[in-house]
Design a protein that fits this description.
590 residues, alpha+beta, Tumour Suppressor Smad4, Beta-Lactamase, Alpha-Beta Plaits
């Protein structure tokens, strides 16, 4: 298989890529794997090319702004033969037909040396400026590589750019299933007209076994040492393993020649390329770190379906066993149920998948707002979602966050109600919010567990959500949450009013219920004065002054359906409190 080598003005402006036979490829500044990003003279899509097995057919595209020079002339179409090149701007593209073959019969080196990481850290670069410049660009170059193939291309180019004495480089891999099987993933060499490349399999396996850089030198100070040269154009080679588990088995193989006689008295070149080894170690460590980062990003992306961002962020800096361990804490719980599902399922019984997608979109509105406000999605129950605030980290503004999420959910469904084509049309939400002590963390059995919250406050939020159908209010609060809203939440964010004191079905303890109302700018139907009338009406009702309560309730707008519950209850009892009235209205259903 032939390769195309691109070489720009700077040493690091380079890549070598294999040409698949018979495949039409596009080369340009933004042409994916065949991009030449460093040269502004190359158009976004400059030319198309196809390797036929004998030559590379090249055609300049109409989108190209600059000419393609072949054999010194601007050419629109030509066939490039191995060993030939063409030029665009300041970049030369050379076609080569070379092979890489692992040699298992390399002669014994006259010297083998292993390098510990500590030794290489203490070794200074004689001319550090260029190497530091290349290393500074390495993270950006490697992080933008898409896939293993592009990563190896970038690594080989940067190795050649940062090691002026290296003649050939390769990214190799020792297979885990067969410790003697070595695969050359990608290779490149500095001299375009050079011959085939024969890395030493023995050297690669030795470096993998020792898990540190190993150097073989075949040419030394004695003339007789020439007979030990592995190849006529290679004096030394080393292999540096890539540390870590992400690229386990990978190594960087580098080979080169001494420039002059390293044993002569006037030579300034050391007897071995230790600086090249140090540079390769730094490249290998960078590859490992970036690989680990990518792995963590992929793991976080997959875990994001199961953990909220606030949990993932905490897990990234603290011990997961400590973070997820169940513990008692103060939380605000939001329980949100989808209304209108039964009616919509009847209407769309013939399109259950379509209905499922709409329900998923509706649940997505709930979970998005919970997460947007820094909450944790604790559970799904059919077409309902539960979120909570105050864990894994304490949130002093947990009530404010909960209220913002609830109002955002309400607003999203109200907007969809005015858009018949919206997937959310026909749906609305009932929301219950309660605040109190609960146990939060990893809760479940040995066989199955989930991150959620447990305790009476969760049941209370669920009860309040169910009461939204009875009291005809979109968002209901318990007394603790309502009082916190009055103290902590600005009125331009949310308001609250008392609706009733009730005894939930099946319970003995009374419950004061409030409604979370949007600010007056978003809900002009209910002014602050109307909310004050409602609060006063509840006080009068509890005190037994039912006629006064009835009159106060009628000062609110007739469109305010939440006051209908008290108005109807008072009317059913002829505006007269029943005997032994304790101010609590019993509910006959959940």
């Amino acid at each position: 298989m032939a390769d195309l080598i691109a070489q720009g003005k700077e040493p690091q402006e380079r890549w070598r890529r294999a040409l698949p036979e018979g495949v039409r490829l596009v080369l340009g500044r933004t042409a994916g794997g065949w991009a030449v990003a460093w040269d502004p003279h190359v158009s976004r899509k400059h030319l198309s090319m196809r390797w036929t097995g004998n030559g590379l057919d090249v055609s300049r595209l109409p989108t190209a702004h600059n000419p393609v020079y072949y054999r010194g002339k601007a050419s629109e179409r030509f066939t490039l033969l191995p060993g030939e090149h063409f030029v665009i701007g300041e970049t030369r593209f050379t076609l080569v037909d070379q092979r890489v073959n692992l040699t298992v019969e390399a002669p014994e080196p006259i010297r083998q040396q292993s390098f510990s990481a500590q030794y290489l850290r203490e070794l200074p670069f004689r001319n550090p400026d260029h190497r530091i410049e290349v290393l500074s660009r390495l993270p950006e170059v490697l992080s933008t590589a898409n896939g293993e193939s592009e990563l190896c291309v970038a690594v080989a180019s940067m190795l050649l750019a940062g090691m002026p004495r290296a003649d050939a480089v390769a990214v190799v891999r020792v297979e885990e299933t067969d410790a003697a099987a070595v695969d050359v993933i990608h290779w490149d060499q500095r001299l375009i007209g050079g011959g085939d490349f024969e890395p030493s399999q023995r050297l690669i396996l030795e470096a993998t076994r020792q898990r540190q850089s190993v150097l073989h030198v075949w040419l030394g100070g004695e003339p007789a040492a020439q007979m030990f040269t592995a190849r006529g154009d290679v004096d030394w080679a080393f292999c540096t393993p890539v540390p870590g588990e992400v690229y386990r088995g990978w190594g960087l193989y580098v080979a080169g020649r001494f420039r002059g006689d390293p044993s002569s008295a006037g030579s300034t070149e050391p007897a071995d390329p230790r600086e090249e080894v140090k540079f390769a170690e730094l490249v290998a460590a960078t590859i490992s770190s970036l690989g680990q980062m990518r792995l963590l990003e992929r793991q976080q992306a997959s875990l994001s379906q199961f953990f909220s961002p606030v949990v993932l962020q905490t897990l990234s800096i603290e011990d997961p066993d400590v973070v997820l361990a169940p513990r008692e804490t103060e939380v605000s719980v939001l329980f949100c149920d989808l209304r209108g599902f039964s009616l919509e399922s009847e209407r769309h019984a013939g399109n259950l998948l379509g209905l499922l997608n709409r329900v998923s979109r509706a649940l997505g509105v709930m979970t998005h707002q919970i997460l947007e406000m820094g909450g944790v999605v604790g559970d799904f129950q059919g077409d309902a979602a539960m979120g909570f605030w105050g864990w894994p980290l304490r949130q002093d503004d947990a009530v404010l966050r909960t209220c913002r999420a609830a109002l955002a959910i309400r607003a999203e469904f109200e907007r969809a109600g005015g858009q018949p084509d919206s997937p959310l049309a026909g749906f609305h939400a009932g929301i219950g919010i309660a605040t109190g002590k609960a146990v939060a963390g990893k809760i479940g059995t040995e066989d199955q567990a989930k991150v959620t919250v447990f305790g009476p406050v969760v049941n209370l939020a669920s009860r309040l959500e169910g009461m939204t159908k009875i009291l005809r209010a979109p968002i209901l609060l318990d007394k603790i949450t309502a009082e916190a809203v009055r103290r902590q939440v600005p009125r331009h964010v949310a308001r609250v009013r008392r609706l009733a004191v009730v005894r939930p079905y099946g319970l003995d303890a009374p419950l004061e219920v409030g409604e979370l109302v949007p600010p007056e700018s978003q809900c002009p139907l209910l002014s602050d004065e109307h909310l004050a009338y409602c609060d006063a009406a509840v006080d009068a009702l509890v005190a037994g002054r039912w006629s006064e309560a009835f009159e106060l309730l009628h000062r609110t707008p007739t469109e305010d359906r939440a006051t209908d519950f008290l108005t109807v209850y008072i009317a059913q009892h002829n505006r007269t409190p029943p005997p032994n009235w304790d101010g609590v209205i019993p509910l006959s259903s959940k």
